[in-house]
Specification:
The complex is a heterodimer. By secondary structure, chain A is α/β, with parallel strands linked by helices. In chain A, the strands form 2 sheets. Chain A has a 6-stranded mixed β-sheet with strand order 5-6-7-3-8-9, sandwiched between helices. A 3-stranded antiparallel β-sheet of chain A has the order 2-1-4, covered by helices on one side. Helices cover 85% and strands 0% of the residues of chain B. The termini of chain B are far apart. Chain B is an all-alpha fold. Chain B is globular. The chains are: A alpha/beta, B mainly alpha. At the A-B interface, strand 5 and helix 2 of A face helix 8, helix 9 and helix 12 of B. The structure holds adenosine-5'-diphosphate (ADP) and magnesium ion. The site of adenosine-5'-diphosphate has 10 residues of chain A, from helix 1.
Chain lengths: 237, 275
Amino acid sequence: MSTPLIKCKNVSFEYDGNVVLENINFEICEGDYLCIAGSNGSGKSTLIKGLLKLKKPFKGEIAFSDGLSLRDISYLAQKTDAQKDFPASVWEAVSCGALNKKGFNFFFSKTDKQNIENALKRLDVFDLKSKCFRELSGGQQQRVLIARAICSLKKLLILDELSSGLDPNALNNSYSLLKKLNKENGITIVAVSHDVKNCAKAADKILHLANKQLFFGNAQEYLKSDIGKSWTENANV
Amino acid sequence: MFETFQEMFSYAFLTRAVIVGVLVSLCSSLLGVVLVLKRYSMIGDGLSHVGFGSLAVAAALNIAPLTVSVPVVVFAAFLLLRVSENSKIKGDAFVALISTSAMAAGVLVISITTGMNTDVCNYMFGSILAMTKADVYLSVTLSICVLVLFVLFYNKIFAVTFDETFAKASGVKTGALNALIAALTAITVVLGMRMMGALLISSLIIFPSLTSMRVFKSFKSVVISSALISAICFFIGVTGSFLYSTPTGASIVAVNAAVFCIFASISVIKRRFAL
Ligand SMILES: Nc1ncnc2c1ncn2[C@@H]1O[C@H](COP(=O)(O)OP(=O)(O)O)[C@@H](O)[C@H]1O
Ligand SMILES: [Mg+2]
């Protein structure tokens, strides 16, 4: 049993008095591959924002283990259109991933630049590096944002809706990249998806949300449980 | 041409004005890129009105204007920033509320004390004659600080501008950086007001970055081209105002507007040919 990196105890979230998530209890351990599943509006993104301290729970506690800080967490946000008319090259977009370092580092070092390049290559967007981010297709943009998360990779990788805009080929590549990072590099992975079926297949553990906690446990148990059966057999809910 | 410059720089006050002007143009164009992209361009305009109010009060009390304005406007910048971040209040309307109140306070103070004299006109419309030697030293020091801080924090400033949520989640202190941006903007606005006037200073912030964004598509190229455009437009504007005795601020804005039109046409032509 490894020690939990993040522990959520009775966590609840609200927006302006509307409770969107109630009594969530789970933990993320080192080396886990956790899938957070649930339909649209079930509170997945809200929970992620809580983990990243972007949003405070109004009840309960989210505890980080001693060795863990925000800088150890890489984040793929669900796409917003904030970057719609922003002049930024692909390289610049990915370079934000190199900022999660300790202390005062004003400029990028050689290692940082190498990291940025490697991340671009891993997601197969190296050739696009001087292109304008806003002029890429949705799927290409998503790959760039994944590359940015990979560039900042330390211990824990959190991906909110990895699949959005990706074609099946790119999606497969991304899933195998995650698998590889998890198994070979020991990176802890938290993947959020409304696509319960595919997500559950890849992960070791499942947290199923519907504004409350429906299930938390091993993927095998989940697939055998009633709730797991009804959600995975019912194809795309 | 060469003779014109020689004549211009034979006046000590003009030389000083050009030095300060180029530095302030650089500061405002760099910060302008960030403010425009963060949808904060209203703040620059609001700050200039607050600056006018504080300059009027300083003049009435007979204190050196910059020593009053810089702290007051920096404080106002923090306030406006907080307000714009708070989604519950209508940010842009509130900015207008604060800025017009400060402007009105300034106008009232002026009418009670000195009346509408040339000093006041200078604050409204700008004048390069308005700068004293002490002003020049302070302006040069402050604008060099702004430039150095901008360069040092360039990567982080890009990150909070491009995607604040991601920057925050990576452990970048976004609150502190936004405060830094606000403080630098406030200083730049106050410095620029003497030359451009309260009514025109925000154009110095907005024009160069919008012009560059017509043509350039990476953040770095937009930043560099804004800085160049801003400095060049300033220089042409000042020279024009010297040759034809036109108001400095308005001349600089006119040059900026012309360059904007040129860049906009370039972008249209580029798109046509790409099709
Ligand atoms: N900024 C917000 N303000 C108010 N309500 C919100 C906000 N963000 C999300 N919600 C609400 O919270 C609920 C959960 O949203 P979210 O966590 O984004 O769901 P998911 O990511 O699972 O699709 C939804 O009902 C949504 O309407
Ligand atoms: Mg979501």
